[in-house]
Write a structure and sequence with these properties.
The complex is a heterodimer of chains A (111) and B (111).
Chain A: E1 3-7, E2 10-14, E3 19-26, E4 33-38, E5 45-50, E6 56-59, E7 62-66, E8 70-75, E9 84-91, E10 99-101, E11 105-110
Parallel strand pairs in A: 2-11
Antiparallel strand pairs in A: 1-3, 3-8, 4-5, 4-9, 6-7, 7-8, 9-10, 9-11
Chain B: E1 5-7, E2 10-13, E3 19-24, E4 31-37, E5 44-50, E6 53-57, E7 65-68, E8 75-79, E9 88-95, E10 101-102, E11 106-110
Parallel strand pairs in B: 2-11
Antiparallel strand pairs in B: 1-3, 3-8, 4-5, 4-9, 5-6, 7-8, 9-10, 9-11
Classes of the chains: A mainly beta (111), B mainly beta (111).
């Protein structure tokens, strides 16, 4: 069964304390891996798309990387405004374009 | 801002009532998706349109749920005879490539 597992479920960091979030996936042929940020009561906000192992994308304090079995979202010197839930998703390999999401990592950055 | 819009943002209804939600996608996007998200979970796929054609429906979408996308523009999601288990955030997303862009969601509470 195609699955996406994110860890940790929750993470508390001090401002400036860098860390990484993990997204492991089991799909038969990755067609795309996607990272989103979601604030409470709002829809997911697109961050990155990754397609192949070794690919990296960066945006401000965030960097996403991809291997054959997992993806990491690295957060460098986080600020309180980075507090949110970070969701990982893979595109369904059957070709229907739908996403399979993980349950997310709730990040809290303390000032 | 020409992002995905959803209306209403919040809906409170009594069990057994019918409700309808609307999604206006980004204008140039031909794909439109509906997802449902409950607290602490990632979004779960409900259904997918390419232009006006509904190409896939999840088994989560019982007979009480129906979705339409007339003329390939906006979409509506109707839930008939609502149940307390239907309480969730209903998210709409649109895209023309692999990446999906989400709206703010409609929060449904069934009393």
């Amino acid at each position: 069964e195609d699955q996406v597992t994110q860890s940790p479920e929750a993470l508390r960091l001090q401002e400036g304390e860098s860390s990484s979030l993990n997204c492991s996936y089991t799909v038969s042929g990755l067609r795309g891996l996607f990272w989103y940020r979601q604030d409470p009561g709002k829809g997911p906000e697109f961050l990155f798309t990754l397609y192949s192992a070794g690919e990296e994308k960066e945006k401000e304090r965030l960097k996403a990387t991809l291997t054959k079995k997992e993806s990491f979202l690295h957060i460098t010197a986080p600020k309180p405004e980075d507090s949110a839930t970070y969701l990982c998703a893979v595109q369904d390999p059957s070709g229907t374009y739908k996403y399979i999401f993980g349950t997310g990592t709730r990040l809290k950055v303390l000032a | 801002d020409t992002g995905v819009s959803q209306n209403p943002r919040h809906k409170i209804t009594k069990r057994g009532q019918n409700v309808t939600f609307r999604c206006d996608p980004i204008s140039e996007h031909n794909r439109l998706y509906w997802y449902r998200q409950t607290l602490g979970q990632g979004p779960e796929f409900l259904t997918y349109f390419q232009n006006e054609a509904q190409l896939e429906k999840s088994r989560l979408l019982s007979d009480r749920f129906s979705a339409e996308r007339p003329k390939g523009s906006f979409s509506t999601l109707e839930i008939q005879r609502t149940e307390q288990g239907d309480s969730a955030m209903y998210l709409c997303a649109s895209g023309s490539t692999d990446t999906q862009y989400f709206g703010p969601g409609t929060r449904l509470t069934v009393l």
